[in-house]
Amino acid sequence: MLKAERLWALGAMSGTSLDGVDAAMVETDGATIYAFGPSAYRAYSAEEQAVLAAALGKWPGEDLAEAQALVESAHLEVLSRFDGAALVGFHGQTLAHEPRGRGTHQLGDGARLAEGLGLPVVWDFRSADVRLGGEGAPLAPFFHFACAKWIGATEPLAFLNLGGVGNITWVDPSFARPEEAGAVLAFDTGPANAPINDLMLARRGEAFDRDGALARQGEVAQGALELFLDEPYFLRMPPKSLDRDTFADMIGLVGELGDADAVATLTGMAAAAVLRGMEHCPRPPVRLLVTGGGRHNRVMMQMLRAALDCPVEPVEAVGLDGDMLEAQAFAYLAVRVARGLPTSCASTTGVRAAVSGGTISRVEGV
Ligand SMILES: Nc1ncnc2c1ncn2[C@@H]1O[C@H](COP(=O)(O)OP(=O)(O)OP(=O)(O)O)[C@@H](O)[C@H]1O
Ligand SMILES: CC(=O)N[C@H]1[C@@H]2OC[C@@H](O2)[C@@H](O)[C@@H]1O[C@H](C)C(=O)O
Fold it and tell me: Of 53, 80, 236, 252, whose CA is between 20 and 30 Å from 110?
């Protein structure tokens, strides 16, 4: 176990929207964030995205050689660009997530990455939590708690990640540690960009709805939205988590609509899922800080602003980087794992007791 000294860690995340690998450095002792360092991005090409998309839903033991080689080489490529890291946090590519079923599967072998980089690599962050009865996700909440401290927050606030899937963390920064009862509440809100991307690709051959430009031209189909909100997921108490394609059927709800109305409706569904989620906050947050690619979607942001009493701002409003927050989270969590500090607790994943997930792969001499 590392002593409680500050060090630079390098984190990498390949998210559910399959757009690419984010990597970023954080200086931390596993509790306090001292500084944010450089970051880099390595996009997946359309061909690579197709390889990953074909691997979605697969479990270890299935035919994954090509996708695994791709995930590992893309990570090696981007992580090799950095100097000065003492260890690496490697999330991997989530292919399947069934915490109450077959478990959770993040593709990519951290031991191979450790060999390639010559650095200790922390990986497989989610399995231990699932084994102990947790959802295994979301895991960024303990980092969000540290971010709330870093920005000097004194009142409860919430972080919303609008990635392929959405997740929210409500934080009370008056607590000393995130695992204390009442300090955080976190869960996945619902689908966010993944269905929009899927529809844009299928109908228009485009990767996503840039800035919400197409949604802006359409109207939300209220009937489809109501059917979507009937999903039992929205009645479940948190913590709770989702697989990328848990809501794949929602595409069917907009199947008869024209492109603009269909995208507007999927955008409205993502926002409505967040608004449902906000009802679970123990106290109203004083602000909602939005991270992830969806913060660029002006229509989605406007829908949230129109319905909420508190300011809804991109995390850049407080000096954070919304493109890199998840990569930074896994840098931070890697240091927590190395120090034996918990990475999740009952109010973030539903795990029975606070747990330090993750496996550390070391290379000789390091
Ligand atoms: N300018 C933009 N306008 C609208 N949407 C955008 C824009 N930029 C990015 N996005 C959306 O954000 C997505 C990428 O978001 P992000 O990188 O946060 O997701 P992720 O990390 O892969 O997902 P997750 O957090 O679920 O793991 C893109 O696929 C796209 O749908
Ligand atoms: C199983 C899995 O990979 N889940 C992701 C996904 O993408 C967003 C949401 O669903 C969140 O639960 C999680 O990622 C972030 C980084 C998290 O664990 O906090």
Answer: 53
7-133+326-340+356-361: CATH architecture: 2-Layer Sandwich (3.30)
CA distances from 124 to 129, 134, 361 (A): 10, 14, 10
* pLDDT, tens digit, 9 for 90 and up, residues 256-289: 999 999 999 999 999 999 999 999 999 999 999 9
Atom 9 of ligand 2, residue of closest alpha carbon:
165
Do 166 and 188 meet the contact criterion of CB atoms below 8 Å apart?
yes
Contact 12, 88 (CB under 8 A): yes
| pLDDT at residue number 121 | 98
The string of pLDDT tens digits covering residues 179-227 is 999 999 999 999 999 999 999 999 999 999 999 999 999 999 999 999 9
Give per-residue pLDDT as tens, 221-268. 999 999 999 999 999 999 999 998 888 888 899 999 999 999 999 999
ipTM of predicted complex: 0.98
Q: Name the fold adopted by 152-318.
A: Nucleotidyltransferase; domain 5 (3.30.420)
**Nearest atom within ligand 1 for CA of residue 193:** 31
Cβ of 265: how many Cβ atoms within 10 Å? 27
| 209 in contact with ligand 1, CB cutoff 6 A | yes
Any ligand 1 atom below 6 A from CB of 297: yes
Asked if the domains 7-133+326-340+356-361 and 152-318 are classified in one and the same CATH topology, the answer is: yes
